[in-house]
Amino acid sequence: MVVAVDPISPVAAKLEASAASYVKENRLPGAAVGVVLGDDLVWWAGVGFADIATRRAPDLTSLYRVASITKTFTGTAIMQLRDAGKLRLDDPVARHIPEFGRAGNPFGDIEQVTIRRLLSHESGLQSEPPDTDWRAVRYEGSIARNLARAAEVSTLVPPNTQQKYSNMGFQLLGESVARASGMPYVDYVRGNILEPLAMTSSGFEPLPPALSTRRATGYGGRFVSDELEPSSTAPTIWAEGGLWSCVDDLAQWLSAQLREDGRILAPKTLREMHTPRYLADEDWTEAFGLAWYAIRRKDVIWVQHSGALHGFRSNICFHAKTRVGAIALINGLGDAATLAMDLGEIAREAVAAAAPRIEAAAPMPSEYRPLIGIYFDRELGLVLRVEWRDGKLTIVDPQLPGWRPTLAPSDKPDVFVIEPGVRESGDKAVFRRLPDGRVASVFIAAGTWMRLDPVAVPESARAGS
């Protein structure tokens, strides 16, 4: 008998030391940090101060401006509406926001600016609304006012040729959410994302008094003294970066990315958002999906998003295979992504080193029993196995251990669809039977494999031996 402990407990002190060292070495006012494992927030810490003047320490529900992490919520809203048939990702933005038709595109038609390209920052659209100056705290957060100046908005590089990060683009996505759903953007996100996930401490300005008192104070950067001054107050914005949130709520958000219960998005849609669409650098270390991006760090892929606004830096990241996520919220000018990935890596290594959990196999549906077995390609001289493995019908090639297509049932008996993750995704696997009902072969994507059945040895032959 083995008495198990969760894999994170043994590294709790290491996590705390890493967070505290980062805050101290970078002379930051403080940070609220956490680690998620699957559905659970398994570790958190408040380091330093949420407010220096009152010596208030950060806690689980201290609120920080998470800035561009908001874009992951806006993207999720778009995908919900896509799945509901209210819009399509390849729709031109002007189809949903006709005023945007007056915007410029010197490289072609404005219809080249699509919802999909905005989600992945490859539309070529200018980064900010007209007359933005972040240092002077001049930013127009009203989409209505910016649409009134749509003729001053333009693409600056050809669409679909490179990454060009665009806050203006996510303003347009927020307005697309409002028009497709028939309700204000903030109301849609609250009712369809925050409330279903019980993210009750998260919200947009103006925050109610019960939440306002929990805000951390944002501080400017250190110049020639350790005495930090409160930063300028950031402008009020919404879909591109207006959310206030906390470690407790963002843990729920990360867990929603790591499970496949369909509460917020169908599993297939979640994977679609997290899957890279293009590489963003020549070193192949950064790639953009839909409202998320991924960083390859020491050959580990962290899907993530950062945020930066006056006085605040933030990052949430996760490693899908180990179901580990990390949160870093800083009320100062620090590299939240590095801190989050440092914490995530400590946790990931601990989880990877833990003994695997042994669970009883899922029962196989009786109608699948005739399908499992060995199949042969005579010309190639190769053998495949169709197995019941980890709760799915799975094709196994002994010579290609990294190729394991799984089969999803269709509305027709003996016809399956190959699930995402392999070259054959979306193709059919069709089992064919003899007149007596026995399975004779399986057609997989583009070729037929013949079934090999054991030959029964007659009793007389056994006796003669």
What does this structure look like?
- With 465 residues, the chain is an alpha+beta fold.
- The chain folds into two domains: 9-353, Beta-lactamase (3-Layer(aba) Sandwich), CATH 3.40.710.10; 366-452, Lipocalin, CATH 2.40.128.
- It has twelve helices and 18 strands.
- It has an eight-stranded antiparallel beta sheet with strand order 2-1-10-9-8-7-6-5, sandwiched between helices.
- Strand 11 (373-377) and strand 12 (382-389) form a beta hairpin.
- Helix 2 packs parallel to helix 6 (167-181).
- The longest helix is centred in the C-terminal third of the chain and has 18 residues, at 336-353.
Please render the helix and strand layout as text:
Elements: H1 12-25, E1 30-37, E2 40-48, E3 64-65, H2 70-83, H3 93-96, H4 115-119, H5 143-148, H6 167-181, H7 185-194, H8 209-212, E4 244-245, H9 247-258, H10 267-274, E5 278-279, E6 286-288, E7 293-297, E8 300-309, E9 312-319, E10 324-330, H11 336-353, E11 373-377, E12 382-389, E13 392-396, E14 406-409, E15 415-418, E16 428-433, E17 439-444, E18 447-452, H12 459-464
Antiparallel strand pairs: 1-2, 1-10, 3-4, 5-6, 6-7, 7-8, 8-9, 9-10, 11-12, 11-18, 12-13, 13-14, 14-15, 15-16, 16-17, 17-18
Helix pairs in contact: 1-11, 2-6, 2-7
Annotated CATH homologous superfamily of the largest domain: DD-peptidase/beta-lactamase superfamily
Q: Give me the CATH fold name of the largest domain.
A: Beta-lactamase
**Strand percentage:** 15-25%
Strand order of the largest sheet: 2-1-10-9-8-7-6-5
Q: Secondary-structure element sequence?
A: HEEEHHHHHHHEHHEEEEEEHEEEEEEEEH
Shape: globular
Overall number of strands? 18
Report the total helices.
12
Q: What Rg, in angstroms, do the CA atoms define?
A: 26 Å
C-alpha end-to-end distance: 47 Å
Which runs of at least 5 residues are low in confidence (pLDDT < 50)?
none
How many domain modules?
2
SS-derived structural category? alpha+beta
Mean pLDDT: 95
CATH level 1 name of the largest domain = Alpha Beta
Task: Indicate the CATH architecture of the largest domain.
Answer: 3-Layer(aba) Sandwich
Biggest sheet overview: 8 strands, antiparallel
What level of helicity do the residues show?
10-25%
